[in-house]
Amino acid sequence: MCDLPAPYGLVLTTAASRTEAEALARALVAERLAACVSLFPVHSVYTWQNTLEQQDEWQLVIKTDLTLFPALETKIRELHSYDVPEIIALPIAAGSADYLNWLGASVSPLSPLSRVSLQNQDDKSER
Q1: Which end of the chain is less congested by CB atoms within 10 angstroms, N or C?
Q2: From which domain of life does this come (predicted)?
Q3: Mean pLDDT, to the nearest integer, of 60-66?
């Protein structure tokens, strides 16, 4: 276990459908705003515009570096179908050093060499 001062955390949001949740997840990971996004179905009960509502939704658990929160929030708002999407950040107090190192590397900006390597992998997978 690693006690960390690094600003890693979980960001929670919900989406109206699996399709929307997957699109959000792919965009966040592709843009290196998230290392990983876990998705699962949930049933929510809430008040919206003074009316009690309940709805099946998809919960996204986004693992990220919280210093990226402003850009991550902007991307979620850009892609989200809700007027007021849930966007809540929770810090990670401790975790596996190996996992947290991977998380940090996954959201770090890519070096030019890494971009070329990834592009080559993409080119090979399209053949």
Answers
A1: C
A2: Bacteria
A3: 97
